[in-house]
Amino acid sequence: MTREKQIEYFKGCLMATGREGIEDLLDFIEELGFYDAPASGGNHCCKDGGLLEHTVNVMQYAEKIGLTLLGSEAYNKIHSSVIIASALHDLGKCGRYGSPYYVENMVQDGRPTKKNPEQKYKRSESKPYKISSDLCHIDHPLRSVELAARYIDLTEEEEHAIFYHDGAYGSLAYDLKGHEEPLQVIIHFADFWSAQFLEVGKLDRFNDQVKSEETTDEIKEEGENNEEE
Question: What is the pTM of this model?
Fold first, then answer.
């Protein structure tokens, strides 16, 4: 999916919820730099536009997971909340207006010499971004809820799902234990699957296997057709 299609999908899904204030929120999201921000410092989608790509992946997986676990009738009752929570779960990774959450992680590029005494720097290849030291330490899920709530009314379940979307891997894991909710688990599963499998290439081997099997089937079919002729 191209960047343009990702933006179209993201905006279209949120607008379709009909939530009051969503259009103003979308304008704010664009001003905040959401569409150009990375999704992580050096893990999944650590690139310009990575946050948008990751978010669209989570939105699509959340819908698949919700439908599979709940069935269409029950899922339709929380469909808008699934869209809202999955689309906004990482909004806090934009930081604040004028103060991005992630900044370039610059490392030394070689050593100064007598001929070139000035130290040169380059963006790290292994960890291109780091969390900005200009921001106070506030977990990004909390930032996400705070930023979204400026423009739209979030339900308690949506706030809970966004706040605890990291599940057992978040800083509030022990606080969450025993207080999981269906919406929160759907968003967590979708986020985890996207970040830990899809976006780091761990699913490629399955795709390669499918392509290999399809090629084998095509060869067999072609051979059978030649025998018939």
Answer: 0.86
